[in-house]
Design brief:
CATH class: Alpha Beta
Order of helices and strands: EEEHEHEHHE
CATH architecture: 2-Layer Sandwich
Helix content: 25-40%
Strand content: 15-25%
Number of helices: 4
Radius of gyration: 13 Å
Distance between the termini: 15 Å
Largest sheet: 6 strands, mixed
CATH superfamily: Dinitrogenase iron-molybdenum cofactor biosynthesis domain
């Protein structure tokens, strides 16, 4: 799982691809466990063209290397179509990372089930928590 974050450790107010970094988490032993933080080196790939598909593909490639199966943000832009080919988009109602992690922990079983279903039949619909 990759959680989009700003430099202020909040979820972005704009959309997933504009995050400064991604926190990588795994579900293990019924709990959400922090793995690492990685910079979003493709944050500015769409300068001049908002929603540039190349940016979406670049971010997807970055996160595929981290063995991510779902991505978490408050908002997703046009590239949700590309992102959802590889990951289950999860939309959360708050931007405070501690509250988000708590919510994800509570909804872990639902997220894991949806991510497995999504892996077999990708769609652009997001899971809203």
């Amino acid at each position: 799982m990759a959680i989009a974050l700003t430099k202020d450790l909040k979820l972005p107010e704009n959309h997933f691809g504009e995050s400064e970094k991604f926190l990588i988490y795994r579900f293990s032993d019924g709990r959400l466990r922090f793995v690492k933080s990685i910079p979003n080196q493709h944050r500015n790939d769409d300068e001049g063209e908002h929603g540039n598909p190349e940016k979406g593909r670049n971010i997807a490639d970055l996160l595929k290397k981290e063995d991510v199966n779902c991505v978490v943000s408050r908002f997703f832009g046009k590239n949700i179509r590309i992102i959802s080919e590889y990951f289950l988009p999860v939309i959360v109602p708050v931007n405070d990372v501690k509250k988000v992690i708590s919510l994800l922990d509570i909804k872990a079983e639902k997220i894991v089930l949806e991510a497995k279903t999504h892996a077999v039949n990708p769609k652009s619909n997001a899971l809203k928590l």
